[in-house]
Amino acid sequence: MRIDGPAVYGYGDANADFHVFGDSPARHGGTATGVPFTDSEAGRRLQALVHELGFATDAYADEPDLSNLYLSYIHPGDGEPTPASYADQERFLDAELRAINAHILLPVGDRAFAYALEHHTSVRGKTDPRTSEMHATPVRGRGFLVIPVKEPTEWTETDRERLLATLRELLDGDYRQIKGVATTVG
Fold first, then answer.
1. Where is the Uracil-DNA glycosylase-like domain (predicted)?
2. 3-state DSSP call for residue 12?
């Protein structure tokens, strides 16, 4: 399946321990800049938070200087995605998640969190897939720690502070997950 219009591909530190991924540029911005989570209210709120945590040098920029953080989307195409185009693009996100090899996944919004639950944890049927219910609550995954993020445009001050506290606690501790490396012997 082809992406029509400008695509918004992943952006940031390719050696990051933290990987934020959202739905699409249609929902979270970036169509005008080519950078995820920009030119939108969701991007301004998210970038202000990652700046406060020390991941970004500025509180908001169209091309943020990021350290230890990578940003991407399930569907990088312009316009409103369809169920078929989401299904087609998920394989590229999966490859990107594994290539960046972050320890902490931060799916933004319900679609991204449902994707993370299904593909990167074994608790899909046991965990509420709504970020409004699970916001900033760590979920152990298969090689990843998943921290669901409620839509930034819906954050209350309590939501923002809860996410900030969760991420600060992780940064102050040993957040790295044990990852297996597949090898063949013989």
1. 10-152
2. strand
- Domain residues for the domain of 136 are 11-172
Per-residue confidence (pLDDT) for residue 177, from 0 to 100: 54
Closest CA relative to residue 148, chosen from 168, 175, 166, 126:
166
Angle at 84 between CA 80 and CA 89, to 5 degrees: 80
CATH at 119: 3.40.470.10
* 84, two tokens: 């078929």
Query: Residue ranges of the chain with pLDDT lower than 50?
Result: 1-2, 178, 180-186
Read off the pLDDT of residues 132-152 as tens digits, 9 standing for 90 and up: 899 999 998 888 899 999 999
List, in sequence order, the alpha helices (H) in the chain: 25-28, 41-52, 83-100, 110-120, 131-134, 157-172
